[in-house]
Write a structure and sequence with these properties.
The protein has five helices and no strands. Helix 2 crosses helix 3. The termini are far apart. The model has no long low-confidence stretch (mean pLDDT about 85).
Length: about 150
């Protein structure tokens, strides 16, 4: 077998190609920048992803039991668990929003009365030592009577 000499391979000078260590460092820096930008973009979703992970881990044993009872079904079990979780999470939210809607009418009426008649001075303001009269006067001037919108 003919022996290969150094003359048969093309020589590369040190300035032509970057060394392996430089390429590795450049790749690491690029990966770190890419990872940082990714985390920066998804930072608003991290809390949601965390809760999704917690729910998935906590429901997994129940899911396995349901899947076993349904004969190992790969469609019915996930569908049933997903619908059950959706109902379990969305019903309280719907009830809370319904109550907020009902109470908003009362709040709007209360704010209208305050705007028309002002807010009466609480009794305990008069009994404050040293500053009771000053607070009473301030309250009457700013909150007690009807003020035109320009005064706010």
């Amino acid at each position: 077998m003919p022996e290969k000499t150094a003359a048969s391979f093309p020589q590369q000078s040190d300035g032509d190609a970057p060394d392996a260590r430089g390429r590795r460092v450049t790749r690491l820096i690029g990966a770190a920048v890419l990872l940082g930008l990714t985390l920066w973009m998804i930072r608003s979703y991290l809390t949601t992803l965390g809760w999704a992970g917690i729910i998935a881990i906590s429901v997994w044993p129940l899911y396995r039991r349901i899947q076993a009872r349904l004969g190992g079904s790969r469609i019915a079990a996930p569908l049933l668990v997903t619908i059950s979780l959706a109902v379990l999470l969305l019903v309280p939210i719907a009830l809370a929003l319904t109550e907020i809607g009902r109470e908003s009418q009362f709040i709007m009426q209360w704010l209208t009365r305050l705007q028309q008649n002002g807010m009466p001075v609480p009794e305990w303001i008069h009994r404050l030592p040293l500053v009771g009269q000053h607070f009473d006067a301030w309250w009457q001037a700013h909150l007690g009577g009807r003020n035109p919108p320009s005064s706010f």
